[in-house]
Amino acid sequence: MLFGVILINQGTSIGNTCRFGLYYLSLQQQQNNIPHMKPATIFREYIWLVSTIRQAGKITFSALNDKWVATEMSGGLPMPRSTFNRHRDAILDMFGIIIDCDKKDGYSYHIANAEALNEDTIQNWMFSTLSVNNVLAESMEVRHRILLERVPSDGEQLHRFIDAMKQSVRIILRYRRYGSEESSLMFVEPYFVKLFNKRWYAVVRHPDDGMLFTLAFDRIVSLELTDQVFEYDSAFDPSAWFRDCYGIVNDHDVPIEKVIIRAFGREPHYLRDLPLHHTQRELTVTPDYTDFELTLRPTADFITPLLSRGAAIKVLSPEWLAQAVRQGHLDAARLYE
Prior knowledge:
This protein has 337 residues and is of the alpha+beta class. The chain has 3 domains: 2-145, no CATH class; 155-241, SH3 type barrels (Roll), CATH 2.30.30; 257-334, Alpha-Beta Plaits. It has helices at 2-9, 14-21, 23-33, 39-56, 61-69, 81-95, 122-137, 155-167, 238-241, 267-273, 300-308, 319-334; strands spanning 59-60, 99-102, 108-111, 169-175, 184-196, 199-205, 212-216, 220-229, 257-264, 281-285, 289-296, 313-317. The strands form 3 sheets. The chain has a 5-stranded antiparallel beta sheet with strand order 7-6-5-4-8. A 4-stranded antiparallel beta sheet has the order 10-11-9-12. A 3-stranded antiparallel beta sheet has the order 1-3-2. A hairpin with a 2-residue loop joins strand 5 (184-196) and strand 6 (199-205). Helix 2 crosses helix 8, helix 3 (23-33) runs antiparallel to helix 6 and helix 4 (39-56) crosses helix 6. The radius of gyration is 24 Å and the shape is globular.
């Protein structure tokens, strides 16, 4: 059940979706070699291995097994090396995480590509989700003290969209825009999905002019698969499509610019922990403020998070963006007059 939820809630391209669609088969093959092993149990072991090795930095198999035996999962039994090696292969296949052995350092194991755990990829999202889910599953006795946020989306529509991606078939959908009582009928090609600010979005391609545009899943009224096959552009890179954007607005009429923001008080700490954009870097650090630089297309959806920070930040450049934020604050203040 856990795996099914992850599969439904992720998938950014046909390649990635198909790849993750094979994980259950891989998991079933492992179960055939490990008697009485449930999928949830295997995932817990994957998570434990990555987390323990990552925390240790480097650790020998013997030391790792000492930690393993101390867990409830082990049942007091050591982990066979054959099981460890199978888990290493599965972790690489599923999450792209390389557990490597350094023979020159006492045959110690380490995460060879630790940066993969910080990247904005489907593998890292899946690993993080499984890790959190594992913690929640072991915390049922305090479940009333764990509060979660709802992600608005019709899971069935998302599931159908991903099915259409895997089959490379066009879809017919009805879409109701905000402010409209009528829904419009669309015949499009499903390209990829994106999760942004707790909302799922579908990026589709118009079969006639080849234009790509974005739709919110919570505004899709109905979605049906057709039997018309289309050819997905194998050279297309979904992650690159939004690389220069703040969120889900990709407007090429807005040029890429360097934006400098001055953050005051405790705001620099928040921006360091949760950067506004992957290009964000620090320019100047003082006791009173910190200047950050971002390189992106400053579209309308980028102005909203700037306004939401109130007096904690000030836009230094470009001047037009600083004036837009200033005007937004003035317009908001007039509502209280």
